[in-house]
């Protein structure tokens, strides 16, 4: 199935999941396929940055216009892999390749915490779904898979800086104010500006962290778009982030990265991709981790992010930034 095709790729959400589709769309396009990506409307700005994508469609606004037998596509690659996406794809009466979710293995990992149940990185599972369209197999090392950012006007720190991602979709991916203050105090030894990234929910925390005299912090929380946040990430000397879309953006741009793990865990298959030298993962010491794929923490359970070894974050930063002079 290596002949040139018009392919509809379905990946509805969210930011990190779409970023991890980048090596797939990049290789599909490099092999001559025309790629259309269908995602939720809220994430269209992210999808338009994916390399190799010719057109982005909205799940909410455009899917009703894609109908059999007049569909302009030859094949569908369903990288959402949910019952909803599968039902919709079947209605198109087109050949469909579907990303298989490892429900049983993931459940065993969450129940036993045993690394023997670690999941294959999701990028490679996506590649398995797209395999028939790759003439010589999946070759990410030969692809230009970095996000294509549009021109944005955003004032960045003039010196090399460290980006701190304050947000996270659920509490099990987020540090609290005191933890970030402790990290910022430790990073002050590097005498580098700090850029605080997050959404409107983190605006108050970002403002409070920025305020102390001499903090060296610039607060971008709640005042920038996702794409502008990507620009902050792409130009950082180091990124420190929980399991978020911005963490995946940092890996996509091959930025030096420290990822923080609480309720989620790299063994769930969503570790930063690709892996490279200037990358460290700091894991909670909580016996409850991993709890869930999404970072949800039951009300009766302590948040594993509260047991993150913050001293290891500073040590990892020192290791990555060893060419910087410390006083």
Give me the secondary-structure category: alpha/beta
The low-pLDDT segments are none
Helix and strand pattern: EHHEHEHEHEHHEHEHEHEHEEH
* CATH topology annotation of the largest domain: Rossmann fold
Task: Specify the CATH class of the largest domain.
Answer: Alpha Beta
Question: How large, in whole angstroms, is the Cα Rg?
Answer: 20 Å
* Strand elements, count: 11
Strand content: 5-15%
Oligomer: single chain
- Please identify, by name, the CATH architecture of the largest domain: 3-Layer(aba) Sandwich
Q: What is the number of helical segments per DSSP (H or I, 4+ residues)?
A: 12
User: Overall pLDDT, averaged?
Assistant: 95
Give a description of the structure:
With 327 residues, the chain is an alpha/beta fold. The strands form two sheets. Strands 8-7-6-9-10-11 form a six-stranded parallel sheet, sandwiched between helices. Strands 3-2-1-4-5 form a five-stranded parallel sheet, with helices on both faces. Helix 3 (44-47) links the parallel strand 2 and strand 3 (55-58). The N and C termini lie far apart (60 Å). The radius of gyration is 20 Å and the shape is globular. It contains twelve helices and eleven strands. The chain folds into two domains: 6-142, Rossmann fold; 162-320, Glycogen Phosphorylase B (Rossmann fold, 3-Layer(aba) Sandwich). The model has no long low-confidence stretch (mean pLDDT 95).
């Amino acid at each position: 199935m290596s002949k040139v095709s018009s392919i509809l790729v379905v990946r509805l959400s969210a930011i990190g999941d779409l970023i991890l589709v980048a090596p797939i769309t990049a290789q599909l396009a490099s092999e001559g396929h025309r790629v259309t990506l269908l995602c939720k409307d809220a994430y269209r700005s992210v999808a338009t940055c994916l390399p190799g994508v010719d057109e982005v469609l909205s799940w909410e606004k455009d899917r009703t216009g894609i109908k059999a037998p007049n569909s302009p596509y030859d094949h569908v690659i369903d990288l959402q892999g949910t019952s909803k996406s599968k039902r919709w794809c079947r209605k198109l009466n087109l050949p469909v390749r579907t990303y298989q979710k490892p429900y049983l293995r993931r459940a065993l990992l969450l129940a036993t915490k045993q690394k023997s149940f670690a999941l294959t990185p999701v990028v490679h599972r996506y590649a398995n779904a797209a395999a028939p369209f790759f003439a010589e197999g999946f070759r990410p090392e030969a692809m230009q898979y970095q996000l294509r950012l549009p021109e944005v006007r955003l004032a960045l720190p003039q010196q090399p800086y460290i980006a701190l991602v304050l947000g996270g979709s659920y509490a099990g991916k987020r540090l609290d104010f005191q933890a970030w203050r402790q990290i910022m105090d430790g990073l002050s030894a590097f005498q580098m500006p700090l850029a605080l990234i997050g959404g409107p929910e983190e605006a108050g925390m970002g403002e409070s962290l920025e305020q102390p005299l001499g903090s060296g912090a610039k607060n971008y929380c709640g005042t920038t778009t996702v794409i502008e946040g990507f620009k902050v990430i792409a130009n950082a000397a180091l990124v420190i982030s929980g399991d978020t879309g911005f963490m995946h953006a940092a890996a996509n741009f091959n930025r030096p990265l420290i990822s923080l793990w609480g309720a989620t865990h790299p063994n769930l298959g969503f570790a930063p991709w690709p892996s490279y030298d200037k990358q460290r993962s700091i894991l909670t010491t909580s016996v409850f981790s991993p709890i869930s794929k999404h970072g949800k923490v039951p009300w009766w359970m302590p948040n594993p992010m509260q047991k993150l070894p913050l001293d290891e974050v500073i040590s990892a930063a020192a290791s990555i930034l060893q060419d910087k002079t410390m006083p």
